[in-house]
């Protein structure tokens, strides 16, 4: 495990706050070792840093009460959804209280006429989509994991559909949030757009629990398209696959999904999901629209891919086949882990302008090979965002060092291409060293905002800027 | 004119700063009465509050230098683009220095492959589109006025194309900005999405010059669609027109524009632009896509409008005809002013969930009539955003009072419908009384952010929160 420096603990304050919380919340407040460790667990190579207690909140008022107690005694408060974040977001480097929001799992309102809904933060994206299905609606943001919508808002998640439907920033209309002093605010209503003062919604979305705890989310929804079709196409190299993606974006083809898997990833997915695909770089696509437009999109894609040596272009004809293909894509993480049993996957998250994608992915593949790393690549190629995931034997110090060097090298490369080290995973603990490099003095102003909104520094300390 | 309380002036500081700026900038620094008054001029019913000097900046470094001088002497700094804002944004209630950015008018880079560009803040949207045309690209945000892109970013402008392409928030990839202490920061690169810390880009977009002065903007662009067609359709009532819009949005038809004009507005436009249209509520539409999809969209719209009594549905067949129709829409403001010569137009900016639009517009129309106000309505109906614009004889105190009452009533109505008092114009001076009502305690946290990023309060004082 990679260790982050622990932060100084306020043991006296934590002791006092825990006494108050146990009395106030009874069995909702748990301090057992296993539950605390599970709530510090993160799907990363970062050391587990458990909180001192987990409180299972059931209402916004309860969240407010917890924060008020912690504010009074200067105790860290860490919000927890499903624990699927990738950069140590839920670790507790200074101890403190984890607020588990999974029991706040109600869909509070669905306004079908306005294509919006209001949910509690513990609703997962799959639960929401199950709830919406018979209304002919869906929520498009799909980070892969069945994450909670509160967590997705807190980390500005995106994923496979972002090329068409945007990220959480584009799909959260407004929030209810508990601020660092326990006050509950609303950042807006249900209007599609607003210019009413500073954009608190988009400041809090992606603030990773460091500026507030999100207690309600108003989301944009989409109508389920009249027609959906999927397709796959194989390519001789990741370069030719990326060039095809670039031509698709430049053409303005409104693909709903365009995902890249490199040959290593295809091999892993074949093994895990029994796909039988040619083991060369692959694009997986999805088209949404009317019956006619879906056919037209698929034809245009076929013509574009021909120019770059695409082969085996095949549209899925049944829902079953489509689901199998996308399930395999969603299982990529598990397929990777099985590809090298016992290894830890270290997710990277570079995002570059689309014209640089082919070069960036090609260089990343070559560099991983040079370093002797097994590092499958999957990518939301239409956004220029891809994940190289070195599969690392954490007991091998030399390999860990090579992997760490690779991650730093890749972040540098993305920045040199006018990109970012994190397209969608966020900063958390893991990317703090890169934030200043990427954002320069803008980081100082982020720290000013943090100090202004959380003067005692109790909200998820040790993440993003501090 | 409606008077806003003047704020206390720091006469000594202003005197000192002006001396320094005159010496440093020579003829770039002007203090003549006419130029100052022109830079306080706003297209509103608010009193003109001119700055003490106007400095015509030519580089980011010059902007930084000006801000540093003003910071040292605690002198207000007000950024100025083209002066087309509608809520008194460029007024100088405490005097100070206006920074005119119109000479920073260069398109610095166009990355056709990535569909993005980087511009100085004084480039206007029409200039940018002229620059882009031979590259097959366009910038979609169209607030009507030929505003500067810096001003559009500062006020989070949107307009007729937002239903398809979003607002400035959705189309600014990153900024260079001069902060209140004169430091120059960059808020990101050219990646399509990023999760690198707090979203400084979207915090500064829409901050109306109160948190920074924007000195460069990196924008998303669009490919000019293969096919564009326009259409118009008349309706018996604004209610039936709005119901049609709602069904279009619920259907998921990707209209590029869907604009509402009520019968008063059609009458004014007929007179001003010689259109000869039936004087009943009207929808103007534009469809973007492939040749086939544009035809399909137009057909689907026709079927939907039939359900609500749409008549005279006609697609334009020539570019000339299309341009005439949209020029008339863009000239709506001038058509209104000519409709009641000598009157001042008082723009409102309510934005409500689409299911409430028909009710909101219908009530607004009835209320204006009750109050004896001549108040044409135009609206970006697909976003639920519409502008009722009472045409007021400012010499008639009773009429001014009725108009003011109408504006307050409409804002209340929009809020009661889960909407906002400002979909796109911003708060400025004019909407400050409504911000607290709309945002509640969230306004306190906006004020905290303002104090953190501009501790001396020199950036555009007297707007948004203070």
CATH architecture of the domain at 227-330 in chain A: 2-Layer Sandwich
- The strand order across the widest sheet of chain A is 15-12-14-13-17-18
**Largest interface, with Cβ-Cβ < 8 Å?**
A-B, 92 and 92 residues
CATH class of the domain at 227-330 in chain A: Alpha Beta
* CATH topology-level name of the domain at 227-330 in chain A: Alpha-Beta Plaits
Number of helices of chain A: 17
Binned, the helix content of chain A reads: 25-40%
* SSE class of chain A: alpha+beta
Q: What's the mean pLDDT score of chain A? A: 95
Given as residue ranges, the uncertain stretches of chain A (5+ residues, pLDDT < 50) are none
Coarse morphology of chain A:
globular
The rounded distance between the terminal residues' Cα atoms of chain A is 21 Å
Strand fraction of chain A: 15-25%
Textual characterization of the structure:
Two copies of one chain form a homodimer. Chain A is an alpha+beta fold and 466 residues long. Among the domains of chain A are: 11-102, Uridine Diphospho-n-acetylenolpyruvylglucosamine Reductase, domain 2 (2-Layer Sandwich), CATH 3.30.43.10; 227-330, Alpha-Beta Plaits, CATH 3.30.70. Helix content of chain A is 39%, strand content 18%. Chain A contains 17 helices and 19 strands. In chain A, the strands form five sheets. In chain A, strands 15-12-14-13-17-18 form a six-stranded antiparallel beta sheet, with helices on both faces. In chain A, strand 5 (107-111) and strand 6 (116-119) form a beta hairpin. Chain A starts with 10 loop residues before the first helix and ends in a 13-residue tail after the last helix. The model of chain A has no long low-confidence stretch (mean pLDDT 95). At the A-B interface, helix 8, strand 11, helix 9, helix 11 and helix 16 of A face helix 8, strand 11, helix 9, helix 11 and helix 16 of B.
